[in-house]
C-alpha cells in the first residue's frame, strides 16, 4: 500500500525510491493529474521533463503512461531543469510535470506539477485531489481508454536559453570570469546553453550529470556545499561564483573574495533592475527576507508586498498585484516575464548584468544591498511547536515598541531588530530567523529567543 500522505507534500511529491515512490505511483499520478486538471477538455496534452537522477527517466515514462492511458497526449522534453519545464509549460501553454527531488540526496525523487502557463499546483490548488485519486488508482488499478494518447518529443533547450538571453542582454557588459558549481545537477546541462556566447567566461565545477552526487550534495543552502566553489573563485581570481541546486531552479552567489552574497541582497539588486524597466510596479518579498528589501523597493519607486514563505503564496501574490518580480530568502526568484515562475538562471543573468555594467567588484557592489546583520535560518528541535511559539509571544508581545503578526508563524518586530519563528510542515522543528541593525543586537535577540526554546539543539543552514 502506498502511504500517499508521506510523499504528497504541500507543493510537490517527494519520497525515497522505490520504497515510497515507484513506477506504479508515478503512473497513477499521471492519470490522476489528467483527471483533476481536466486536461482532456483542454488543452489535451501534458509536458513532461526529468532531471539526471538514475530513477528519473523510468518514473517520467511511467507518468507519461498514466497520462496517455486517459487519452491525453504527452510532450516529452527529456532532460531539463525545473525552470526549463516551467518555460515549456509557459511557451506551449500546457500543464507540466517535472521529475526531480531538487536538492535532496540521491535516494529521493519527486514530481513538481503545474497548470498551463506554469501556474502552481499545490495542496489547495489540486494536489490534495490528485493524492486522493492516486491512492484509489494504485489500489484498484487504472481504467484505460480505448484509444490512448500519444507521446511526442521536443527539445526546448535552445529556445529556453534564447528566451532568457532576450530578457537580460549581457552583450554590452565588461568581460567577466565566473566559476559555476552545478553540483552534478541540471545546471551542468543548462549553463553551457545559456552562456554559449558573450563576454562571460565560465569555469565549470561538477558539470557532469550524476544523480548520485559524487562530489557534494546539490544543496547550496548548506555552507559545506559551497566550500569547493569558494576555493575555486579565490584560486582563479574570478569575478563571481554561482552555485545551483540539483534541479537548477535556485541560484546562490559568491563574491570575488569567496564570501556568500545573501539572497536578500540579490533580491534587492534584481528588484532595483526590474523597477528601472517597469517603474512603479509591485515587488513581492517573503516575510523573512531582509528589512532592506522593502526599503530598496520603496526607495526606487516600487510597492513592496509581503508574502508567506513558499512558491504558491509568492505566485498568488504576484498574480493579484501584477508584480514584476518576487524574491525569497531561500534563493527562489520569480519573474513576471517568466510566467511568474521561479528561475535561478534568470536571476543569475541579472546579477552578472549588474556587475558587468559597472566597475566595482561584487563585494563592493552588493554591500550596497546588505544593510543589516542576519542570523541565518536556525532549526530548533521541539516537542510542541505551538506551545513554544506561544511562550515566545508571551515573553516579547507586551514589551514597549514591539509589534507582532502571524502572517506566517510568529514575527516580532522592533525598530532595531525583528525575528520570525515558523513550524516546519514535515519535522518537529521551529525555524528561527533574526535580523538586526548590528551584530551584537542580533546575537542578543537570537540568544534570548533560543533560551525560550526549551531543550533545542540548533542546526544552522
From TrEMBL:
Its cofactor is Mg(2+). InterPro entries: A-D-PHexomutase_a/b/a-I (IPR005844), A-D-PHexomutase_a/b/a-I/II/III (IPR016055), A-D-PHexomutase_a/b/a-II (IPR005845), A-D-PHexomutase_a/b/a-III (IPR005846), A-D-PHexomutase_C (IPR005843), A-D-PHexomutase_C_sf (IPR036900), Alpha-D-phosphohexomutase_SF (IPR005841). GO terms for biological process: carbohydrate metabolic process. Transmembrane segments: none annotated. Residues 7-134, 159-258, 268-372 form the Alpha-D-phosphohexomutase alpha/beta/alpha domain. It comes from the Bacteria. SUPFAM superfamilies: Phosphoglucomutase, C-terminal domain, Phosphoglucomutase, first 3 domains. Residues 377-451 form the Alpha-D-phosphohexomutase C-terminal domain. It holds the Pfam family PGM_PMM_II. The keyword NADP does not apply. GO terms for molecular function: intramolecular phosphotransferase activity; metal ion binding. Keywords: Isomerase, Magnesium, Metal-binding, Phosphoprotein. Belongs to the phosphohexose mutase family. This is Phosphomannomutase/phosphoglucomutase. It comes from Kribbella capetownensis. The lineage of its organism: Bacteria, Bacillati, Actinomycetota, Actinomycetes, Propionibacteriales.
